[in-house]
Inverse folding.
């Protein structure tokens, strides 16, 4: 019986899967062991049935809508990627695969799940952006704050300076001061080192 | 003449939708069969199969041709199916794969082969039994279902199974042994009834 524990897992192997030594030892064991011969017979009886059964079930299913559903999903994923790029990663990313895998009982035997439209629909992108904005307020503020600050600086400098005059604006941030000079040639930024010197 | 896989892949990579459709149609049933064997639920298997092709499309550029295209596709399907099952499953530990003496003794009862016979060509009962196989398969733990499906539907060798599942060859062999033993146990009652009814018919 001790040998059976060793040889039983080898039963059902295909040609070339065992070493020559293993194959020879298995053959010798089977010649003397009725229990393992019975295992081998049962294994042979089962051989191929699982594959047959599963393919039979696959063949029994109507695959007519399958390829169209796949193509729609592919288009959705691609469209979502394009949208994601066009909004600079701010809003619409392809839906995670895990999210689309669903749970049992929610399979897409009928029409495919709506997972977005293609990237040319700007209204859709806009609708998607607002919920994202609501969910990620801090990120939105962090993203928009520098742009708004820059805009304010430009407006301030433009309004506050006459043509050909030099206007000076000092910005302070975290204890460090930066100076922007608005000259007739355009804005000039004085770096901190120059300010310090 | 059927276009070979690599030609279709090349065309699909170039953006030919019809080529990709042809790939899907060629492998959809096999991918579904593998997914069904692993996830059990037909609708979930349908989703897994579809997601497989979405992934295939998204990663076509990464297919290097080191393995056959079908192997590559089915590897994606297998991983997706296993991931799906594991996400669905409650935290539950499967039993160990060690082979002990009691396992061998039980597996050696041989009633399945008695009931079914050994010649696949002449055994009409095999076809009838195939309908029961899926049910029996569903009773197996995920790891046993998976290895049986990969072995029988994909026809993977011990080495390939070891590579695919990330386990040693010895574990492949013992896991397959247990998987078959459980299948046999699930089918034994059915096969036993058939054998008994056959005896009665012969006796009468």
């Amino acid at each position: 019986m001790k040998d059976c524990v060793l040889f039983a897992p080898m039963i059902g192997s295909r040609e070339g899967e065992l070493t020559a030594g293993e194959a020879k030892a298995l053959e010798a064991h089977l010649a003397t062991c009725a229990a393992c011969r019975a295992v081998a017979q049962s294994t042979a009886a089962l051989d191929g049935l699982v594959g047959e059964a599963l393919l039979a079930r696959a063949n029994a299913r109507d695959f007519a809508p399958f390829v169209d559903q796949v193509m729609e999903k592919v288009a959705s994923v691609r469209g979502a990627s394009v949208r994601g790029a066009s909004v600079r990663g701010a809003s619409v990313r392809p839906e995670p695969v895990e999210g689309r895998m669903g749970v049992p009982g929610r399979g897409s035997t009928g029409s495919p799940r709506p997972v977005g439209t293609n990237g040319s629909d700007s209204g859709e992108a806009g609708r998607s952006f607002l919920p994202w904005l609501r969910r990620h307020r801090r990120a939105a503020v962090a993203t928009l704050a520098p742009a708004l600050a820059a805009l304010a600086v430009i407006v301030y400098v433009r309004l506050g300076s006459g043509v050909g005059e030099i206007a000076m604006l000092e910005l302070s941030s975290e204890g460090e001061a930066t100076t922007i000079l608005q000259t007739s040639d355009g804005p000039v930024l004085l770096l901190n080192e120059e300010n310090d010197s | 003449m059927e276009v070979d896989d690599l030609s279709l892949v090349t065309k699909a990579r170039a953006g030919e939708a019809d080529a990709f459709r042809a790939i899907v149609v060629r492998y959809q049933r096999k991918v579904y069969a593998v997914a069904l064997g692993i996830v059990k639920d037909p609708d979930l298997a349908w989703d897994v199969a579809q997601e497989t092709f979405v992934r295939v499309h998204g990663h076509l550029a990464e297919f290097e041709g080191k393995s056959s295209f079908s192997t590559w596709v089915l590897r994606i399907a297998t991983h997706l199916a296993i991931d799906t099952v594991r996400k669905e499953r409650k935290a539950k530990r499967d039993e160990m794969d060690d082979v002990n003496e009691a396992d061998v003794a039980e597996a050696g009862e041989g009633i399945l082969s008695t009931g079914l016979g050994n010649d696949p060509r002449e055994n009409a009962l095999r076809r009838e039994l195939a309908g029961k196989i899926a049910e029996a398969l569903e009773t197996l733990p995920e790891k046993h279902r998976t290895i049986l499906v990969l072995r029988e539907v994909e026809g993977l060798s011990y080495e390939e199974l070891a590579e695919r599942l990330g386990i040693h060859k010895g574990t492949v062999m013992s896991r397959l042994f247990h998987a078959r033993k459980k299948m046999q146990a699930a089918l034994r009652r059915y096969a036993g009834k058939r054998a008994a009814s056959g005896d009665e018919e012969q006796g009468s």
Summary: The CA atoms of residues 112 and 188 of chain B lie 6 Å apart. Chain B is about 75% helix and 0% strand. The longest helix of chain B spans residues 169-203. The radius of gyration of chain B is 20 Å.
